[in-house]
Amino acid sequence: MPDHRQLVKGLGFYGATSVVAGTMIGTAIFVVPSIMLSHVGSPFMVLVVWVFAGVLSLFGALGYAEIGGALPQAGGEYVYLYRAYGPAMGFMYGWTQFIVAKSASIAAISTGFLLYLAYFFPSLMEVIWQAQPRLGSHALNLKLTGLQLGATVMIGLLSAVNVLGVRRSGAVQTIFTAAKLAVLAALILAGLLFGHGSPHSFRASLETHAGLFSGFAVATVSALWAYDGWNNLSMVAGEVENPQRNMPRALITGSLLVLGVYVLVNISYFSLLSPEEVLSTNTVAAAAARKFMGTPGATFVAIGVLISTFATLNGSILSGSRIPYAQARDGLFPRTLATLHPRFSTPSASIVAQACVAGLFALSGSYEALYTKAIYSEWIFYALVTAGILVLRHREPGLPRPYRAWGYPVVPIIFVCLALLLLVNTFAERRSDALWCLALVGSGIPAYLAWKAVKARRRS
Questions:
Q1: pLDDT at 293 over 90
Q2: What SS3 class is residue 240?
């Protein structure tokens, strides 16, 4: 398997930690607490779900820290799956990420940014082009809004920043991660200083329509969407300075930092708002800010969400573009995608290709369906990568491992089992999306066989 260490190493410990925290903290923390409360019925159980999902993500990060330190190469999960299971599995992962999972996530994050930008510029929601062409006896309703166009432009602009160099992109990530943490810190302080919550209010119970286990599992999916991104540092391991030392430290530090912030922010929400008030809004952060600052408070939070989403989008573009780059270097994607920029030494062709696919998704406007399918497909590979730690420990005991996963083999096994339970429950609760994702992942098999046939024809 080829080496992938030709990228410029521009991310130190703080930059790497900001990639972890910056890609984890997005818009979800400002939205999903009310959804979680509707499933579990009490603020206390919402906090339990946050801790459970955070610990589950930390378990995954501990495993990724071991395999990332042992294989510090650009491409992340692709490299790990290739090494553990062979090129076919590596191709299927890269295929899924490039075609839908990562690109759709980028499009969804960009669309979320524009949704909050529309708070200040409502005209972004207006339709700027519309047509109704006929397909046989059916009429298609095609339209383009300022929201869709703006999301596509955002993807293009931040992709251009990433082409200019990882140091510039890392600096953007660090600055905006610090800004979003400052906004969340303000919300936490507001809850501590102005909150009127008591232990009794956290134990309050609301009626739900789900059973205890199913409600807890569905709420966990929402929390895991908020934590998603802890794996992104592995995708840019080839650009981390002293990766054997900095990758494990950044993964663990970033995961623990976000877990603590999320729990404190939710305590603040439920200190400022009653359970009924939380349940009645989809913008719980703005409602909490309005409680102690009025309309200026809601405006402050809207700006904070924009900052948070901007940093998350930048981090996703930075990390996601390294997957097709790594695959192309191994001959599993067109070699053009392995091209480095002659001046900035960044995978410019891969960044541009990813921007094109993500831009198409952004133009489609299917935000909610895309992020649901992306999360399901990603967790299939999270489980496979973590199981790969067990495979590599058995098959390659001599592989240098600067960091060994804490609690091995119990912690990786727990993570894999819980990930499988999550996938099974999501299949039961969201069957159509799960089937769509499984079909998408499975489509990588004929795609891989077709690519092998093309390569064989070229050799002959």
A1: no
A2: strand
pLDDT surpassing 80 at residue 244? no
Any idea what DSSP says for residue 123?
A: G
Of 116, 183, 38, the C-alpha closest to 367 is 116
Amino acid at 458: R
DSSP string, 145-183: EHHHHHHHHHHHHHHHHHHT-HHHHHHHHHHHHHHHHHH
Q: What is the pLDDT of residue 6?
A: 46
Distance from CA of residue 220 to its chain's centroid?
Answer: 15
**CA pair distance 68, 250, nearest whole angstrom:** 11
Q: Is 197 strand, coil or helix?
A: coil
The DSSP H or E segment spanning 129 is strand 127-131
Element (H, E) at 93: helix 87-96
Spatial separation of the C-alpha atoms in residues 15 and 281, rounded to whole Å: 35
**Does position 391 have pLDDT exceeding 50, yes or no?**
yes
C-alpha to C-alpha distance for 421 and 426, rounded to whole angstroms: 8
> What is the C-alpha to C-alpha distance for residues 87 and 150, in angstroms, rounded to an integer?
38
Give the CA-trace dihedral at 358, 25, 169, 364, to 10 degrees: 10
Residue 246 CA from chain centroid, whole number:
21
pTM of the model: 0.77
Residue 109 CB partners (closer than 8 Å, separation 6+): 26, 27, 309, 312, 313, 316
